[in-house]
From TrEMBL, chain A:
Membrane-spanning segments: 24-43, 75-108, 120-137, 157-176, 212-231, 238-271, 307-326
Record-annotated HTTM-like domain positions: 15-275
A Pfam match: VKGC_lumenal_dom
Protein name, UniProt field: HTTM domain-containing protein
Membrane topology: Multi-pass membrane protein
Organism: Wandonia haliotis
From TrEMBL, chain B:
Keywords: Signal
Domain Imelysin-like, residue spans: 43-324
InterPro entries according to UniProt: Imelysin-like, Imelysin-like_IPPA, Imelysin_sf
Cellular compartments annotated: Cell envelope
Cited CDD domains: Imelysin-like_IPPA
Keyword Glycoprotein: no
Protein name: Imelysin-like domain-containing protein
Length: 462, 353
């Protein structure tokens, strides 16, 4: 017992000196992954599709002032991210690179919540944490140019905070799976897996509900416990096989982009110093670096500014509390989505909606049904149709589009003054028949857009 | 830590044992077999039938060209109607060859812009393949060319006749190209059963939904004023000169219904379709709702005796009722059915939230 408890207190000895090599390797991994991720994004033409084409952007509450740059200028943050990712990888102007990367990435993510993905949020957080740690103190261009920054050891929290963040992702993804749809109905996996029934040989199993249950339970246990197995030296290698297997399966079956690769490589941070030393030696040999860095690298000063430590504690507390903020709201979390984002609810539900909007001229009672494709992209429509806050934002946008405008139809003209905006929305959650989500009776433009409970969402019938 | 390992493995073992016990769960369904049925019994026969009707339209024009009798003029109109109606049975397959040739836009765009048609005729020089001429070609342009009050007389004018001929020949050439491309595309179509957006199954489901919504909005909603604060827009009616708009709507929806059930194009044999997939997924109630709603829509369309333009004058509230009925089906198809299939509707990365 004492051994265990001393081990645990060890984790909180922030400035305990440990080998810096795992941090260095992580810097390289992170840089390369980001370089790959951003290149892929550019290559797929998503900058144009997601940040230049749309007429309207679903900003985040409190961050609506974050606007896209005009036209092709939107490529600028992506180019900067590419350069910054290179800077991170080779450790050149490292802190600036990490900061520019964090800033550009987060800026882009804040533009439109239609594009929210948990792994983008993860990248934002990780790149922010990378700004705080001296990941250029060894095997970097910076250290080459300025040997005085070279260190062989570093404060434990520099690596620990990254492990913490990874642990939060996994464990909360696991906790989120502890719900009856996931565990007792194997949804949404049952719907998703059966769609793959045409895969040779394995397909027949994916159509069986038992397989969906197996995947659901295994996925949940994996998420909940994998970090503990990775932390333990004895089980680490075995656990890592599970990491690779698990993420490869998700990569094969679901369109989750670079996320599987990010996790497969990021979890290497849990490996021992010896492992990371070997990787470093290998990298040096690859790059034909004969020059030994064995010149005493010096130890880290070992004293972190107390303000930074206080900040870290607040950061960690926030990370642990935020996913539980949904408990402050009544009603069903998956249905109302109040406190849903930023909580590592990954691949957790299958929600599809159909939203029909109506603009009504109050004076005459004349109503027009809106063709959503006139104003939104397909991605935006799909996301908006199931998320109440976005439904409200879109309704407000429609009001600005129609208020005071005169429309002429052939000979006839009609001027719209102070219109009300209504929506009839149906949503299907995790394979259930669709239910009324938003009733047409509400004038959405009169409803408040804030963090308080939205009592205008129709109640959910499980 | 060891505890957790044990818990994990016991649970795994438990679940996997359970799996071996009752292997006889729901009967298997095969998307590949469904696509094969749809291709061989629904799509390809419909395309062959359509191609034949277009060929008949072309030869009816040739006949009229050699002998501009009023009987031959009537025959030409009759063949145009038959081809236009047959087009309603294939227009929802807007992927693969259709998309590669931009066929749907070139064939079915309406309303036609008669000013562009007339300026093309009077100038005598035009490139029908240009984007600006999309509104001056296809079935809708022919509706004007063959049914405007002066059509019969004007078909003796060289420019008018040549233009009509060019539109029909273009339609015929492209139809031949698209239909023959389908015979080699068939094998791609039946084997592409994945869940990615580019798989033919996803494209079929997406275009099925898109065409249904297009029928709802373009063929009915816009003309009757759904998007224009109740102000009717007769200038947006499809085929206003011939007055067959409601027939086109009916055939369009009936064909979508046929595709849904995997029924053969010609006969009534009912093969594997979306309906069977839904039943396999334990969604029989949804399947019943969808089939009933389709039947109600067709019954409702059949209650209208006049043309769409006439009904808009005399019976606007019933047209709105028809629109609402068609609208009520969208959620069944687009939300309930499509989400049950686990078809992806986005090209973006997705982590399912």
């Amino acid at each position: 017992m004492t051994e265990i408890s001393s081990k645990w207190t060890n984790y909180f000895a922030f400035d305990k000196q440990v080998s810096i090599t795992p941090l260095i390797i992580y810097r390289i991994i992170f840089g390369v992954l980001m370089l790959f991720g951003v290149s892929r994004f550019l290559f797929k033409g998503w900058v144009q599709q997601l940040y230049i084409d749309p007429q309207f952007y679903f900003g985040y509450l409190g961050f609506e002032w974050v606007k896209p740059l005009p036209g092709n200028w939107m490529y600028l943050p992506f180019i900067l991210m590419l350069l910054a990712a290179i800077g991170i990888t080779i450790g050149y102007l490292y802190r600036y690179s990490a900061f520019v990367f964090f800033l550009c990435f987060t800026y882009v993510e804040l533009l439109d919540k239609s594009n929210y993905l948990n792994h983008y949020y993860f990248v934002s957080l990780m790149s922010f944490l990378m700004v705080l740690v001296p990941a250029n103190a060894k095997f970097s261009v910076d250290a080459l140019r300025n040997p005085s920054i070279r260190r062989d050891t570093t404060s434990q929290w520099h690596i620990g905070i990254l492990k913490f963040q990874l642990a939060v992702v996994y464990i909360f993804a696991g906790i989120a799976k502890l719900n009856s749809d996931w565990l007792f109905h194997a949804e949404p996996l049952r719907t998703w897996l059966q769609a793959h029934h045409t895969i040779p040989f394995f397909g027949q199993f994916l159509q069986m509900k038992e397989t969906a249950y197996l995947f659901s339970w295994f996925g949940c246990l994996y998420d909940l416990f994998i970090v503990f197995f990775l932390l333990t030296a004895k089980t680490r290698k075995f656990a890592y096989l599970f990491v690779v297997g698990f993420h490869l399966i998700t990569w094969y079956l679901f369109p989750i982009g670079v996320f599987p690769w990010v996790m497969i490589f990021s979890t290497l941070i849990f490996f021992s110093n010896e492992f990371h030393e070997k990787v470093l030696t290998f990298l040096k040999r690859m790059l034909c670096i004969t020059q030994q860095e064995n010149v005493p690298g010096g130890k880290s000063s070992g004293q972190t500014n107390p303000l930074v430590l206080i900040f870290l504690v607040i950061y960690m507390a926030a990370q642990i509390t935020l996913p539980f903020r949904y408990t402050l709201y009544p009603g069903d979390l998956f249905w109302n989505e109040e406190g849903f984002r930023f909580s590592w609810r990954v691949m957790l539900m299958h929600k599809e909606g159909y939203a029909t909007f109506y603009v009504k001229d109050k004076a005459t009672g004349r109503t027009a049904q809106i063709d959503n494709t006139h104003y939104l992209t397909q991605t935006q429509i799909d996301q908006m149709s199931t998320q109440p806050d976005m439904i409200l934002q879109y309704a407000r946008f429609l009001k600005t589009k129609y208020d005071g405008r005169t429309f002429s139809f052939g000979e006839k003209e009609i001027t719209i003054t102070d219109p009300s905006v209504h929506a009839e929305v149906y949503v299907s959650l995790n394979g259930r028949p669709s239910q009324l989500f938003i009733d047409r009776k509400h004038d959405l433009t009169t409803l408040p857009y804030n963090l308080s409970h939205r009592n205008w969402i129709e109640p959910f019938t499980p | 830590m060891r505890y957790l390992t044990i818990v994990a493995f016991v649970t795994l073992a438990f679940v996997s044992c359970k799996k071996e016990e009752d292997d006889s769960s729901s009967a298997a369904f095969d998307k590949g077999a469904m696509l094969t049925n749809l291709a061989d019994n629904t799509i390809l026969p419909a395309l062959a039938d359509y191609q034949e009707k277009v060929a008949e339209l072309k030869s009816a024009f040739d006949t009229f060209e050699t002998d501009a009798s009023s009987a031959n003029f009537d025959l030409l109109r009759e063949k145009w109607q038959a081809a236009y109606l047959a087009y309603q049975t294939v227009k929802m397959y807007d992927f693969g060859p259709f998309r590669n040739y931009g066929y749907k836009g070139a064939t079915g765009t309406f309303p036609t812009d008669t000013a562009v048609v007339e300026s093309n005729i009077s100038s005598g020089t035009y490139n029908l393949a240009s984007a600006g001429n999309t509104v001056a070609i296809g079935f809708s342009a022919l509706d004007y060319l063959l049914y405007n009050p002066d059509a019969f007389t004007r078909l003796n004018e060289v420019g008018y006749k040549t233009y009509t001929k060019d539109v029909i020949y273009k339609l015929s050439d492209e139809t031949t190209a698209v239909v023959s491309a389908w015979s080699s595309y068939r094998s791609t179509f039946v084997s592409s059963t994945g869940t990615e957006t580019t798989s033919s199954f996803s494209e079929l489901v997406n275009e099925f939904n898109r065409d249904y919504e297009l029928a709802k909005t373009a063929k009915l909603g816009i003309p009757i004023g759904i998007q224009s604060f109740g102000i009717q827009l007769p200038e947006y009616i499809e085929a206003p000169y011939s007055g067959i708009s409601l027939d086109l709507l009916r055939t369009n929806i009936a064909s979508i219904h046929r595709l849904y059930n995997g029924k053969s194009h010609a006969g009534s044999s009912n093969g594997s379709g979306f309906d069977d997939y839904l039943v396999h997924l334990e969604k029989s109630a949804l399947n019943t709702t969808i089939n009933n709603t389709f039947d109600q829509i067709i019954t409702k369309i059949d209650t209208f005796q006049g043309t769409l333009e006439e009904e808009m004058q005399s019976n606007p509230s019933e047209l709105e009722a028809l629109y609402n009925l068609i609208q009520s089906q969208v959620v069944n198809l687009k939300t309930d059915m499509t989400s049950s299939f686990g078809v992806l509707i986005t090209y973006q990365d997705n982590d399912g939230d």
